[in-house]
Design a protein that fits this description.
The protein is mainly α. Helix content is about 50%, strand content about 10%.
Length: about 90
């Protein structure tokens, strides 16, 4: 193996290992699910069932926050203004 091939192999190995070290576990804290409709609405009931199963599968708790009003715009605004970290859906 010549020096150029060795350098390429070392660079490829470094890139492969760098991707693994940069990866973060998700989720590592609870997730907030925003429902833009009133409590006990059909959508709210379905979302509670869905988040219960998601929590069991992902091993994390899901909190549901109902924000009714303005035809769903208030709930959408809360999600849009949340930190873009994937913990507010």
């Amino acid at each position: 193996m010549n020096a150029k091939s060795l350098q390429v192999c070392i660079a490829a190995l470094a890139l492969l290992l760098a991707g693994q070290t940069a990866a973060q576990n998700y989720p590592n804290k609870g997730i907030l699910m925003v429902v833009p409709l009133a409590t006990a609405s059909a959508t709210d009931v379905v979302m509670r069932i869905v988040t219960q199963k998601m929590g069991e599968n992902m091993g994390q708790q899901f909190a549901i926050e109902n924000i009714p009003g303005a035809a769903g715009m208030l709930g959408g605004e809360k999600v849009a203004r949340a930190a873009p970290d994937g913990y507010t859906i």
